[in-house]
Fold:
Amino acid sequence: MIILGIETSCDETAAAVVRDGREILSNVVVSQIDIFAEYGGVIPEIAARSHLEAMMPVVNRALSDAGVSWDEIDAIAVTHAPGLLGSLLIGTLTARTLAILHNKPLYAVHHLKSHVYANWISKMALPQFPLLALVVSGGHTQILYMKGHNQFEIIGTTHDDAVGECFDKVAKILGLPYPGGPSIAKAALSGDSGRFKLPHPKVEGLDFSFSGLKTAVLRAVQKEVGVPISYPSHKLKELLSEKQICDFAASFQRTAVEILREKLEMALVEHPDVKSVVVAGGVSANEILRKALPDAYFPAPSLSGDNGAMVAAACYYEIQSGVEPTDPYKLDIYPRISIEN
Ligand code: AMP
Ligand code: MG
Structure:
């Protein structure tokens, strides 16, 4: 079965053609990172306009790279939730129109489900059920229990910020460029991860909290450079040396990874039946996290970020699980919706 996957939940315009949920025939991603580096974050209105410009060239390129015609496409899959409203609208309207024009079944796919299913693509050995999925992205930090394909139970979630958001905010405090995750990881390579002791939040059970860690970094930076807590965070970077920035990046990254690992270990104790662990979302690209969880499945580095291949893969397993296509005339978008729905 050959599926065209379309993804526009945030600031990547992406389309891919995937056979049987595992074999990538093409994978085209146009990122808006260069546009938003200037602003230090995503501006939803600009993101939507950029999707509009890139969408059809990206879809056409995905088909030509795969060497397939519309006749050979069995289904169209598109991200319908969660994400930025304007961004989701461009992808879903495109997919709906293409489904009607080419008379193809249309499937609306949850974005986090897609991130999880990136772990099934191009893998020799597949994850085994029941499994735990650690979802670590810019908008979510969750531990999911999966009894089987397409069955998700949230057993832990963040009370406030997501871990990726925390990487991005700490990078801003340190004056490192957007997106913060890769910038922190790069600076940390030259830093001493033991120099600054940062607290682990005390959150009950398998839940997370990352806003306290971000504030702890802010206070530690203010203390280090000798300014009061009222000092504006955007001016701190001017007072930090290269060495201090790298040491803060390394210390923060180590702490964030330790928090994730501790909660995952707790989840494994509570669910002794679990056979595999998969890690999903943008933060899964982090090398220190990969080293900290040597037995877990991680997506190929090129599939950690947003892409259409994972949407097509998730759709394949939805179809295998008996999910019916969506009416292209009625498809709704849900900026905020749980993976359990
Ligand atoms: P997503 O929301 O899944 O698209 O992922 C985007 C998030 O992943 C952003 O918060 C990035 O800062 C973060 N991210 C990307 N690469 C890395 C990395 N190497 N280490 C940590 N975080 C990362
Ligand atoms: Mg994402």
Q: What stands out?
A: Residues 10, 137-139, 164-165, 167-168, 179-182, 185, 281-283, 285-286, 305-306 surround adenosine monophosphate (ligand 1) (CB under 6 Å). The longest helix spans residues 242-270.
